[in-house]
Amino acid sequence: MRSTFMHLFFKSPFENLKLHADKVAECGKLFQRAVECHLASECEEFNSLTDKVAKMESEADEIKRNIRGHLPRGILMPVDNFQFFLYLREQDKVLDSVEESLFWLSFRPQAVDEQVGEDIHYLVKTVVPIIEKLAPMVEEAHSYFRSRSEERRVKIKSMIRDIRQIEKESDHLEKELKMKVFGLVKDTLQVYHLVRLVETIGEIADHAQNATDMMRAMIAT
After folding, report:
1. Could you report how far apart the first and last alpha carbons of the chain are, in Å?
2. Percentage of residues in the chain having pLDDT higher than 90
3. pTM score
């Protein structure tokens, strides 16, 4: 059985993992504001919001490198190291997809078609709560691995189910929106741009679910 006394001797890696998750949540809020701003046509802060996301993504990368590079040798982790780093990778990819989505949105300075724009806004509003749920889940996991409380384990599993349910909804919205784009938009280049944008937004939820899969595996040990 893995030791539950790690916290008595070392700073838990889950503390920095929570800091990384907090950056993800902050970027989620900025991401939604940036998308809403761009869709509103008359937007003067889109570039500044995009720059803030890029800055936070860089800060999150620094936390990620710190986690990977400063895990004490010989520390007895409460979870499998491989699973822990897979979780970190997927949580980090959430941020990568947020930044990539804004990158694709910036390709077309003019507003997106109103009918499609409303659906993109709704898809983003569906995806962002997934981002915001990661930090509380990591915090709960940190407490669980210190206490091995069954009550906390049950709570984490409930959080995982919530994220999976939202991801299913976002996946359904993504498919419907891509079909709508092909039906409404006539310009080939615009079709490609919108479909890739929608897919990239959908990847935010996909990576968040992948992270929860790793969390589910970790609490199962």
Report:
1. 9
2. 71
3. 0.89
Measured CA to CA, the distance from residue 163 to residue 157 in angstroms comes to 10
**Domain boundaries, position 131:** 11-219
3 within domain boundaries: no
Output the CA torsion sign for 217, 146, 160, 163. negative
Number of structural domains in the chain: 1
- As to burial, measured by CB atoms within 10 angstroms (0-12 exposed, 13-18 middle, 19+ buried), residue 51 is middle
Q: Taking the CA of residue 129 as centre, how many other CA atoms within 13 Å lie in the half-sphere pointing to its CB?
A: 14
Question: Domain for residue 110, yes or no?
Answer: yes
pLDDT of 155? 96
| Alpha-carbon gap, residue 157 to 149, rounded angstroms | 13
CATH code, domain with 30? 1.20.58.220
- Measured CA to CA, the distance from residue 128 to residue 118 in angstroms comes to 16
Cα separation, 42 vs 45, whole angstroms: 9
3-state secondary structure of 78: coil
- Establish if 209 belongs to a structural domain: yes
What whole-number distance in Å separates Cα of residue 54 and Cα of residue 71?
26
The amino acid sitting at 18 is K
Per-residue pLDDT, averaged over 121-132, amounts to: 95
The amino acid present at 119, given as its one-letter code, is D
Instruction: Tell me if 209 sits within 8 A of 94, measured CB to CB.
Output: no
